Structures are given as structure tokens and as C-alpha cells.
From TrEMBL:
PANTHER family, per the entry: ABC TRANSPORTER ATP-BINDING PROTEIN, CONSERVED COMPONENT OF ABC TRANSPORTER FOR NATURAL AMINO ACIDS-RELATED
Protein origin, superkingdom: Bacteria
Name of protein: ABC transporter ATP-binding protein
Keyword Signal: no
UniProt entry keywords in alphabetical sequence: ATP-binding, Nucleotide-binding, Transport
Organism: Bradyrhizobium symbiodeficiens
Residue ranges the record marks as coiled coil: none
Length: 256
């Protein structure tokens, strides 16, 4: 469904993403991890049209989308969430999501946008009543709103950017399960960018690891967690939880 080849992004003389290639298959959840500044957001920004690649190709559903404007990429079926939720505070929860559906689907039909908002809010477990205010939402609620907005654009591919930042452990587990439900129930393919490797490793089918703009490892969570290059990059951060999550992933795969 997505084939990325030789993707490069330079900011002046600095290369933020250096010749990265990968593919994502229909129905897959691909985890994209790497330390701060490794190029994850830059890749997402190129996939969603916020940044044009310096060079390289991004083929989505058989069409080249590299360098297209964000609204054209959304309309072609690539939705995204943002690391820092910035809802319209003067609109209700429902209006925020319906607005995303209205513009995101490119159909400009109010009825369809409202239907999409209802479905998306129910999917993430937020109130579907039309008067609930954004102000009552905490970190976890804002992340859900972000997800509902992306879902309302009817994506075939969802780019989920660091959905777990600011959540406690229970909320993290719930958010991870929600992404898996979105894939299982709606058939949406997902690329999930995350700092926190542990919980991500439990849910994704495959992982790709970036460091200094380059792909240093890719494969099943259990294999990637044991890759010496990945351990080196993550040493002193969450290597232990990652190993534990990979062991859990192996156990589940064995039992499935
Ligand atoms: N607009 C820009 N101009 C110059 N440098 C940039 C720009 N955007 C990103 N960079 C640099 O590119 C590198 C990759 O940044 P990016 O935000 O993609 O990393 P990341 O892996 O998403 O990091 P984080 O986990 O902290 O979000 C960093 O060194 C960053 O400073």
C-alpha cells in the first residue's frame, strides 16, 4: 500500500533523513522508533505533505504523492495525528471532529462529516453528544480527540505521531489497544511513531528503527529488540522495558 524509496530531506547543509526506504503492507501496523532528532517526525511530515522531500519517492496506493499539498494527500486517504494536540477550543468536541471530516474527506457534505464524527468519537470512546466541551479533556482525552479527527478523514493509512506522550501506564496500554482495534475493526493500515518502545513493541507487526536520519534496523519486534545496533542506540533509556515487551511479543506469537 505504501512504498517509500530513497527518501532524503536536507535542511540547508544538514541531512535530517538520509536515503530511507521502506514499505507498508495493507492491514499492517508498522512501528517507527528512534531517539530524539533521528528523523521520525520529518518522515511523517513528508508522508503527510507538510514537508516536500529533497529527493526520493512515496508511492501510496499506486500513485506518487511525494511533494503533494497536505489536503491532496489527506483526500487520497492518508490521515495523521499530531504529537501536540491543538484542537479549536471554541468548538465542541463533536464540532472539532466533524470539521476534520468535512475538509478531510474532501466531500464537503455536512451530513457525511457528522456521521463520520459520530463513528470516530464512538471508536475512540469520547462522548458523541454535540455539546461536550474540549475544556474537560485531559491528556488522554486530547489524544483520543486527535485520533478521532484523523479517523473522521476516512484514512486508509493512519500516521499516528507519538500517541502516548503525557499518558500514564494504564492510559498507554489503552491507547495501544485502541490503535490495534482501529486496525482490526476498520482495516486501517497504521504507521506509529513513538519514543516509548515498550508498549509499541507489544502491538506492532514490524518495527523500523532510525538513528541520525538513517534506517539502522527493521523487522519483527522480537528480532529488532535484540539487534545490537538498536540496543546501543537505546542503551540507558528504555532498553529493559523494550526487552520485556519483545519477550511478551514472542510469547504471544508462540501462543497464537
Ligand atoms: N525545519 C527544520 N529546520 C532545520 N532542522 C530541522 C527542521 N526540522 C527538523 N530538523 C532537524 O532534523 C532532525 C530530525 O528531526 P525530527 O523532528 O524529524 O526528529 P524526531 O526523530 O521526530 O525527534 P523527536 O523524537 O524529538 O520528535 C533534528 O536534528 C532536527 O533538529
Amino acid at each position: 500500500m505504501l512504498e517509500v524509496s530513497g527518501l532524503v530531506k536536507r535542511f540547508g547543509g544538514f541531512t535530517a533523513v538520509n536515503n530511507v526506504s521502506f514499505r507498508v503492507d495493507q492491514g499492517e501496523i508498522l512501528g517507527l522508533i528512534g531517539p530524539n532528532g533521528s528523523g521520525k517526525s520529518t518522515i511523517f511530515n513528508m508522508l503527510s505533505g507538510t514537508l516536500a522531500p529533497t529527493s526520493g519517492s512515496i508511492v501510496f496506493d499506486g500513485s506518487e504523492i511525494a511533494g503533494l499539498a497536505p489536503h491532496r494527500i489527506i483526500n487520497s486517504g492518508v490521515g495523521r495525528t499530531f504529537q501536540i494536540p491543538r484542537p479549536f477550543r471554541r468548538l465542541t468536541i463533536f464540532e472539532n471532529v466533524a470539521l476534520a471530516g468535512f475538509y478531510g474527506q474532501g466531500r464537503h457534505s455536512r451530513a457525511r462529516a457528522e456521521e463520520a464524527a459520530e463513528r470516530s468519537l464512538a471508536m475512540v470512546g469520547l462522548p458523541t453528544d454535540r455539546h461536550a466541551s474540549v475544556d474537560g479533556l485531559g491528556a488522554a482525552g486530547l489524544k483520543k480527540l486527535e485520533l478521532a479527527k484523523a479517523l473522521a478523514t476516512a484514512p486508509k493509512l493512519l500516521l499516528a505521531d507519538e500517541s502516548l506522550g503525557g499518558l500514564d501506564e494504564t492510559e498507554m496500554d489503552q491507547a495501544a489497544d485502541m490503535l490495534r482495534n482501529i486496525r482490526d475493526e476498520l482495516g486501517i493500515t497504521i504507521i506509529w511513531v513513538e519514543h516509548i518502545m515498550g508498549v509499541l513493541m507489544r502491538v506492532v507487526d514490524r518495527v523500523m528503527v532510525l538513528d541520525h536520519g538513517e534506517k539502522i534496523s527493521e523487522g519483527l519486534p522480537s528480532a529488532v529488540a535484540g539487534d545490537p545496533r538498536v540496543i546501543e542506540v537505546y542503551l540507558g533509556t528504555d532498553a529493559e522495558t523494550t526487552q520485556a515487551a519483545a519477550a511478551e511479543a514472542r510469547r504471544r506469537a508462540g501462543g497464537a
